[in-house]
Structure formats: structure tokens, C-alpha cells
Amino acid sequence: MHVLVLGAGQLARMMSLAGAPLNIQISAFDVTSENIVHPLTQALLGHGLDNAIEQADVITAEFEHIPHDILDICEASGKFLPSTEAIKIGGDRRLEKALLDKSGVANAKYHVINTKDDFTKAIELVGLPMVLKSTLGGYDGKGQWRLKSQSEADSIWPEIEDCIAESPNQAVVAEAFIPFDREVSLVGVRSIDGTISVYPLAENIHTNGVLSLSAAITDSALQSQAKQMFTKVAETLNYVGVLALEFFDVSGQLLVNEIAPRVHNSGHWTQQGAEVCQFENHLRAVCGLPLGGTNLIRPTAMVNILGEDRLPTGVLKEQACHIHWYGKDKRPGRKMGHINVSASSYFELSEQLLILSEILDEASFPALKSYAIKLSHSDS
Ligand code: ATP
Ligand code: MG
Fold first, then answer.
1. By the number of CB atoms within 10 A of the CB, which of 43, 100, 249, 269 ranks highest?
2. Using CB atoms within 10 A of its CB, is residue 197 exposed (0-12), middle (13-18) or buried (19+)?
3. 182-376 domain in CATH 1.10.10.10?
4. Which ligand is nearest to the CA of 142?
């Protein structure tokens, strides 16, 4: 099987690594340069979308911000999965909120803003505090504002107005601020015949809007709530492949924050912690193969490596640590790789995370120590 991935970043790279044992070959299409590249070496394999489509048995995507003309050409080839509609929805918060409503899953109250009148109405309908998010192009917390009180409304409006004016299709979604206890996400997979299998929930720690740490958790009540919501969204989309749902946990009640129609950073722990990782399961699904197991095999946490291109050798000496580099050039804050930390119990995992926090610089890995301490006090 030959799978073409739209996007040539780390997610295509990890799909390539996971597909190799099954003889699934991956090539990656860089949507900006229109080059077809090898996802591991970045070696040039060809040029142009038509060539890329011609060579592929199946086409999928590693991100949602893909120009619609490219998606439409892929759709017309009849080879694209999960569905170009799902990718378009994932890249537009307006459509995403409408999907959540249509699927009947709880989510934060919202109002779409195109004009100053809409902004006034949003404050009335949604209430304060609120979070404002650009409908197109947002990621890692970018393109967001917090509005805490009416007195700040006039000073924030010019920024919202500029954002809306960026492009004809741009708008801003105003959302009620949710005072959540924690953020969790569910990564799951749906096959062509409609079979659904989900991984254990992951708890996510963000620092400055970017995912810093993600760890598999076991909470059966929350898990079944999340699975029900996942099923509703995946079935509404008639989805095929890996899908991620991000949630706010408010006293044990989940609200969907957003969806990602692809493999997800909060599912990287599955490489060491689950029977079959999210990358292999995505490929299995889009290639029409039976799904692999999604059960937890050992407690595992993932720590993102942001803006660093080397680690102290002490990390490699820790047998619990598995390093995954993405082969990217160093830039401040850029996702350069991740470390999966596995253990035979949650207590041992907390100890391993603590050891790692002593090897690594706290400024670059801010969530590590506090999560290790929190885990050592929990009874899971
Ligand atoms: P990412 O790409 O990391 O998923 P994003 O740019 O798509 O981020 P969101 O996930 O919507 O944006 O928001 C980023 C973070 O901002 C959330 O993880 C959460 O911590 C906070 N946040 C977003 N919406 C709300 C809300 N309605 N109430 C409270 N906090 C929020
Ligand atoms: Mg998010």
C-alpha cells in the first residue's frame, strides 16, 4: 500500500515509521512547495499534486489548515480519508462548533462575530469572562484573546476587527470561559466498516498555550463519557481514521473544546504505552485493514521537547525514557521531539518523571516536576 500524506511534518514522519512493518509506504506532500518528499529523510520524490495523487492508493492528512482547492482535488480522486469535509471542519472553528451541536455533545456556549454588533451581542449572549478565537488558522493557542470585563471591550475590539479583516472568510468565535479542573483528550479510531476503538484518556498540561505534557489516565466514568461523545462525533462525520477530541473536565462533566481530524500530539504516548500506536491505527483504518488494540499496556506519559535540539545524555541512560526526534531545525518554542516515559505502575511513573525532571532544565520542561509530584499523591 502507498499512502500519500498531505503535510510533511512530524506526524507524517511518525506515520511512516509506524507503517513500515506493515509494508505501508508513505510519501508526504508539502502543500506550500508542492514537493513530494520522503517523510523521514525529506528527500525529494517528485513534484506536483497530480503526480502525488496518481502514485497513491490512499490519501490522508496530518493537519487541518490545508487550502480547499487542494482538498477538493484530493476529494475528486476518490482516494481521500477520513473525508475532506472533516478536515475543513477541523480547520474552521465556526464549522467545528456547528458540528459539536449537530452531534449533540456538550460544548462551551458561543457566538460567531463578523461585525461590531455581533461583538456586542456575543457579550450579551455568552457572558463574561469569554475567550475569543479566530475561526481560521488557530493553533497552539495563537489567534486568541481573553475578555474578562466590559471595561476591556473597547480596547480589545480593534484587534478583533483587524483579525476579521485579514481575509474574506475570517471571523472570530466568542466562547464562554470554562473554569475547568483539568484538560483531557480522547484519541480514537474508526474503521471503514464503522468499528470504533478508543485509547485511554490523556490528561494534558499546557504551558503558554502549548501542550507540554500528556499522560494516559485511568478513570472509567470519565472514559465512558468521553467514548460516548467520541462516537457521536465520529458517526456524525462518518469518519474513517484517527480522530482526537479535546475536553474540559468540569467536576467530572466533560465539555468538548475542539476536535482534531488526525493523529494528535496528546496521542504520542501510545507509541510506548498502547498495544498499537495511533499512527499505525490511523494507517490501518484508512487502508481498510482491521484495527489494532488500543488498550494501555503500561502507564506512560509524554513530554514535549520545545525549542531544543539536544538533550543531556543522562536521558538516554534512563531505561524508562524513549526519545523521538522529528529531525527539524531548531527554533524557539518549536515542537522538536518528545520523550515517552513508561513504567510498570503509576507510582513508578511518578518516580521516573521526577528523575527526568532532575536531568532536564525546568525552564524548558515546566510541567514535568509538578506533574510528577501530583501523580505521586494520586491513588491511580
Ligand atoms: P492547540 O493547537 O494547542 O490545540 P488551539 O490554538 O487549537 O490549541 P484551543 O485548544 O481552543 O486552541 O485553546 C488553547 C487553550 O486555551 C486550551 O487548551 C485551554 O487551555 C484554553 N482555552 C481554550 N478555550 C477555552 C475556554 N472556552 N475556557 C477556558 N480556557 C480555554
Ligand atoms: Mg486545543
1. 269
2. middle
3. no
4. 1
Question: Would the annotation count 257 as a binding residue?
Answer: yes
pLDDT, average across residues 25-51: 97
- How many C-beta neighbours within 10 Å does residue 32 have? 8
Domain chopping of the chain, boundaries: 2-80, 109-176, 182-376
Q: What is the pLDDT of residues 127-167, one digit of tens each?
A: 999 999 999 987 777 889 999 999 999 999 999 999 999 99
| pLDDT score recorded for residue 137 | 87
348 CB near ligand 1 (under 6 Å): no
The reply to whether 178 sits in an annotated binding site is: yes
CA distances, 122 to each of 47, 99, 104, 295 (Å): 46, 20, 22, 42
CA of 209 to the centre of ligand 1 (A): 7
Q: What is the CATH number of domain 2-80?
A: 3.40.50.20
- The reported pLDDT for the residue numbered 140 is 76
Pick the residue whose CA is nearest to atom 3 on ligand 1: 140
Ligand 1 atom nearest to 176, measured from its CA: 27
The residue to which cell 474513517 is assigned: 240
Question: What is the number of the ligand 1 atom nearest to the C-alpha of 204?
Answer: 18
| Residue 138 beta carbon below 6 angstroms from any ligand 1 atom | yes
**Residue 100: what pLDDT?**
98
114: region left, alpha or beta (phi > 0 left; psi from -120 to 50 alpha): alpha
Q: What is the pLDDT of residues 8-27, one digit of tens each?
A: 999 999 999 999 999 999 99
CATH architecture, domain 109-176? 2-Layer Sandwich (3.30)
Give the predicted TM-score (pTM) of the model.
Answer: 0.97
